[in-house]
Design goal:
Blueprint (H helix, E strand, L loop, with lengths): L25 E9 L7 E6 L13 E4 L4 E8 L5 E7 L3 E2 L13 E6 L4 E4 L2 H27 L7 H24 L4 H10 L4 H8 L2 H4 L4 H27 L10 E4 L2 E4 L9 E7 L4 H17 L4 E8 L3 H11 L5 E5 L1 H6 L7 E5 L5 E3 L5 H11 L2
Helix pairs in contact: 1-2, 1-3, 7-10
Length: 381
């Protein structure tokens, strides 16, 4: 189970638990068994609040592993999350987590392995366990392709296409599984935690009504509220992107640093083609695009062309340090507020826009070789 989490570098164990909402407190019981190969000596316990928020600052309890076994009980009268964090011999604390659920009033029998665990018990646990195994079996190819893409400055488009197709296939299979088990609370809640499909669709269109109104009703309510807020945000971003799409006129903004106010209109709409790069010092992909921007600036700067960097969500001193490290030699607007990027519906950086001499937006989200190709096209080179 949970073999997709085996990239975790230590054999730690953590259990995320979702309790039911009851009129009276019920006892959570965990009967734990540790694999012979595991060296866990104890577990720190962290308990969330009734809104499912959990702080990992201070544990509320510590349980000791004896003869490869451990036992834990606690009473709460509201749904929450609980995590167990492994402690190795020598009081070495591991920061890896694996999530499961525990139903109040029941006993969960959990066997800890290296980076994953097995959970047995009531029907709820069996439903959760069944979906977990099904998920693992179908996640293998997605995980392999994701590993091929991870950490690469240049994305292999063929691998990316295969990865997206594998994700679509996985989603289709898992939705089918949920439909077959739409009345099984363990399976449906597991599906929610994996983000297979939006919770609004999962709970409103697929799951049986009793799931939405059942013992995890507060969890469901929170998930639906969160997704509604995100959908609203996405709609606002889409409207801003529409207002600043190719063919639209630029929208001005300003940034203040060291007592000086700089505006986008100081550069754009002044008779030159201008590449504007929204970036930050902490952004790896932003740094990867810098050589392309420097090259374009060095080749084409002059009466017809310029490059401008706009740093967002970045401390000016960090931006200046990165400029020196990367050899950035084109103008910059430092300390730009997030509203500058929001104005253009930018929800990820780097985001590179090419403006025409009159300020018209000619191209958006340029990357790599596209930058020089676009500049040459508009300069007639």
């Amino acid at each position: 189970m949970n073999k997709h989490l085996k990239h975790i570098m230590c054999g730690a164990f953590a259990v995320g638990l979702l309790a039911s909402c009851t009129q009276k407190s019920k006892t959570f019981v965990v009967e734990g068994f540790v694999d012979e190969a595991i060296t866990d000596s104890a577990y720190q316990v962290y308990i969330g609040d009734e809104n499912f928020n959990i702080s990992m600052r201070e544990p509320v309890d510590v349980i000791v592993v004896k003869d490869k076994k451990f036992h834990y009980e606690c009473n709460v009268d509201y749904p929450t999350f609980i995590f167990f964090r492994a402690i190795f011999p020598g009081d070495i604390l591991c920061n890896a987590y694996v999530d499961a659920v525990l139903v109040p009033g029941e006993t969960a029998k959990i066997t800890v392995h290296n980076g994953y665990y097995d959970i047995k018990g009531t029907k709820f646990y069996e439903d959760w366990n069944g979906f977990d195994k099904f998920y693992d079996q179908n996640f293998v190819r997605v995980n392999e392709l994701r590993d091929q893409l991870r950490g690469k400055e240049t994305i292999d488009q063929e691998v990316y296409k295969e990865y997206m197709a594998a994700c679509d296939s996985l989603q289709e299979k898992l939705i089918g599984y949920v439909k077959q088990h739409k009345a099984d609370e363990g399976a449906v809640i597991y599906a929610s935690t994996r983000g297979i499909v939006s919770d609004s669709v999962l709970f409103d269109s697929i799951a049986a009504p009793k799931i939405k109104n059942g013992m995890f009703s507060k969890y469901v309510e929170r998930q639906l509220k969160s997704q509604a807020e995100y959908a609203k945000y996405r709609a606002e971003v889409a409207e801003k992107q529409k207002a600043t799409a190719i063919g639209a006129m630029y929208k001005d903004f300003a940034a203040e640093y060291n007592g000086k106010i700089t505006k986008l209109s100081d550069f754009v709409g002044k008779g030159k083609y201008v590449l504007v790069d929204f970036w930050a010092s902490w952004c790896g992909p932003c740094r990867a695009e810098t050589p392309n921007l420097i090259s374009a600036y060095d080749k084409f700067k002059g009466d017809k062309f310029n490059v401008l960097g706009v740093t967002v969500s970045d401390r000016p001193e960090d931006s200046e340090r990165a400029m020196e490290e990367l050899g950035i030699n084109y103008p910059q607007m430092l300390n730009a507020p997030d509203s500058c990027a929001n104005l253009y519906g930018i929800n990820g950086i780097p985001h590179i826009i090419l403006f025409g001499p009159d300020g018209t937006i000619l191209e958006r989200d340029l990357r790599g070789d596209e930058i020089e190709i676009a500049v040459k096209k508009y300069l007639g080179l």
